[in-house]
Write a structure and sequence with these properties.
Layout lengths: L3 E9 L3 E6 L2 E6 L2 H4 L7 E10 L4 E6 L2 H11 L6 H10 L2 H9 L3 H5 L6 H11 L9 H4 L12 H12 L4 H14 L5 H12 L1
Parallel strand pairs: 3-5
Antiparallel strand pairs: 1-2, 1-4, 2-3, 4-5
């Protein structure tokens, strides 16, 4: 088991990053929230999960322990593999995802690409009582999953523009909300540019 990786970011790709450690370049699959925190040429420290399949050996990396915890829980559900778990983590913050599962929000979960209604229902059914409530605490304090709601004019304009480009609504709203939470004064153009960097 490879549980942790520290090294220099050599390259950031659409869904992964290449981390050089000990002279070896590791391709690490990461959610968009983690990729957004990486910078080429700088050192990165990631919590990791190593998945071995018949046709591949895959390394998944996360910038925080909560993401790893949710990833482990998601992949424990029948029919949910690591790549689908990664898609869920890329679509919304951990707090919104945890709150969605705890609140039985099938509509939210099934809005993620690759997650059908039956899979969303299975996530809710199998993870009830398993997802720690503290993981949903940041969202719950602001009204559960509604913490991902965008209320500023700039935020709404950015969401509309990104939706017009074909991105999924849940992922767009979560990304814009996360950016605004960190920097409330960002204008629509800044939000769109930064969101594109995370969504692509």
């Amino acid at each position: 088991m490879i549980a942790y990786l520290s090294g220099v970011v050599r390259e950031i790709r659409e869904h992964s990053a290449v981390i050089v450690a000990g002279g070896v370049g590791y391709e690490v699959q990461c959610p968009s929230s983690t990729l957004g925190k990486l910078t080429a040429g700088e050192t990165a420290e990631l919590n990791t999960r190593f998945v071995v399949r018949e046709d591949a050996q895959l390394l998944f990396g996360f910038h925080d322990a909560d993401s790893v915890r949710i990833f482990d829980l998601l992949t424990s559900v029948s029919g949910v593999g690591p790549k689908l778990a990664l898609a869920l983590l890329s679509a919304m913050p951990v707090s919104a995802l945890a709150a969605g599962v705890l609140g039985g929000d099938v509509k939210l979960l099934s809005s993620v690409s690759g997650v059908g209604k039956k899979t969303a229902e299975r996530l809710v059914l199998e993870l009830q009582g398993k997802v720690p409530e503290h993981l949903a605490a940041p969202a719950a304090g602001a009204g559960g999953v509604k913490a991902a709601r965008v209320t500023t004019t700039a935020g709404r304009d950015a969401v509309d523009a990104l939706l017009a480009l074909g991105f999924r609504e849940a992922q767009v709203r979560a990304t814009v909300a996360e950016l605004l939470a960190a920097e409330p004064d960002l204008n629509a153009d800044q939000l769109i540019r930064r969101s594109l960097g995370r969504l692509r």
